[in-house]
Amino acid sequence: MGFVINSIDQKQHINLSEEAWIKIDEDMRNFYFNDGRANLSGFLNTVFTNFYEEAEASISYRMDELYDELERTFSDPLFDKYDEKTKRDFVNRIVMVEQNRLVKKVRSYPKGQGRKFRINNQNVAILEESIDDKFYEGSLGLYLKGIFEEYARKPYDEREKIFFKQTLNIIRLSITQKKRLKLSLKEKGYADGSIRMERKFYVSPHSVVVDKTSKFNYLVGFAQEILPNGEIAEERMVSFRIARINQIRMMSSKSGRLTLIKQRTLEQELASKGPQFLSGDIIEAVVRFTEKGIENYQRQINMRPQYTRKIDDYTYVFHCPEVQMIYYFFKFGRDATILAPESLREKFRQRYQSALNNYLDEKQKPESIA
Question: pTM higher than 0.70, yes or no?
């Protein structure tokens, strides 16, 4: 028997732990990418639709899977020495232990803050027709709490995969069928939530990979940008964060097959740069450290570029994308000075000057900037 839903407004109260709400609020900010569509009901409905079939909180689904697995196991000739009643007793005992574990897990989540959201029609049908409420004594709130608490306790990259399940399914299908994708990317938005612009691409996909440091999911492959004037840019190696993809479809009539040479080239670049810097051109940069800067470089491994040689004990040479140099070394301040190339040195100078201006009175600012 399924749950009974309030048919008037389909609103549901749920009480989640502080930890769960923190993760949900964080994911809403990250996954909607400032496009103005973020709302609690939309977010929770998407998570439920994409996750309920795999969640341990859907106990009836997990029990059906366990029964099927145990039946296959006990059908092995190894168990022929046991009669059918003994086999059924084994199965029932194992199922009962697992069922009790899952029920206990759902009921173990701490209370916190209560909020309401509206369940959409698709999920109302699922809850009424596909979910057995007997494990929750008819409490829809308890079941939904189990779903969202379980979701919130997963690592960031797994939560991202759940929320963008439909996008990832299209990508995986196109990879399997070796078809090209057409997609648009969301650019960073204004403070009011509006989008500055969209960029469109034809993509021959290679794979979906997780950056080991930031835990973001990336689509990597070769792409041609569709320029605003309708022209098609030259093909290049790319990586797109899954959260930035706005619209995506597989082009059934267009081949996305990658040659073996392209695949190997991309895999080599992935190994050396990582997916977050795959699209950047490699530059040679020279950095002079203070002693504290060297300590920081040895300690701070997130997005850290590897040096290729030392000029002396305090001066290192790097070969990596320019954007990686900016992301990693800007926070070092006076403890890491860019010596070359001059273009990168100037970018650091301008950024530090801009930051300094925020702390200066108007009279103190340079005339060219004030």
Answer: yes
